[in-house]
């Protein structure tokens, strides 16, 4: 007898956060209440068409809590079955991040009527769905290991530029093509989710233009480094590594944009620093196989200077 299988359920992508803070020396997390369902859960929502997961997590958190957040470490994902808005059966896939509040009014204006900050034990009791406990337990474990408070070091490969064959001037002046400009625009909300406070770019035009949309939106000036250019790297490669060392010393959210020839040395330097084994593997593979144009790798760093530890890393492809 032939068995006819059920068609695969469509996937509904969603993203959210667990905002956390330390109050009087104690960890607290933020839960939201939805009056429509009378339930307590994490701030989350569906991705808009073409939206990046991380950008959606930050946007949905703001829309539901009126709090602006900076994403930290990724947390366990959740998948469960729902009836979608069109009445069809679907699987909702939710990606979560730990997050810290960076601003916002806190005045609710959407489908949430209450936001509360609770201790992990009280949050565990308040949550209505067992699936939401996985993220909480992971966050608490990170806190106990002193790996929850992190800052992002973001490595960016510039987006697609005009081909060398179509450019007659000096190569460092070669700009992005229309596809590269579109990717640079798409990077702005993605970078905003991680909130880099400084932008460091190769002095080449194509790198500057890759970070420019986020720089304009966030009013963050670009710091140009000739040492991150291809021309300088050929002569003095160690100067590019010094840029990374200074970023670790400063220990503040930063995005660094450079070129393919520099990336293996930078990524191997990061992989040689204290890091989680999975992080090392991601960085070593990226160093070996290369990053795509317009790709970013977010390293979540705990601590500062030579003792800093890369506790998680994410790759975001175009």
Automatic annotation (TrEMBL):
> Coiled coil located at which positions?
none
Question: InterPro entries recorded for this chain?
Answer: His_Pase_superF_clade-1, His_PPase_superfam, NUDIX_hydrolase-like_dom_sf, NUDIX_hydrolase_dom
Signal sequence interval, chain numbering: none
Where does the Nudix hydrolase domain lie?
10-140
Per UniProt, which keywords does this protein have? Hydrolase
- State one molecular function term (GO): hydrolase activity
For this protein, the record's Pfam families field holds:
His_Phos_1 (PF00300), NUDIX (PF00293)
Q: What's this protein's name?
A: NUDIX hydrolase
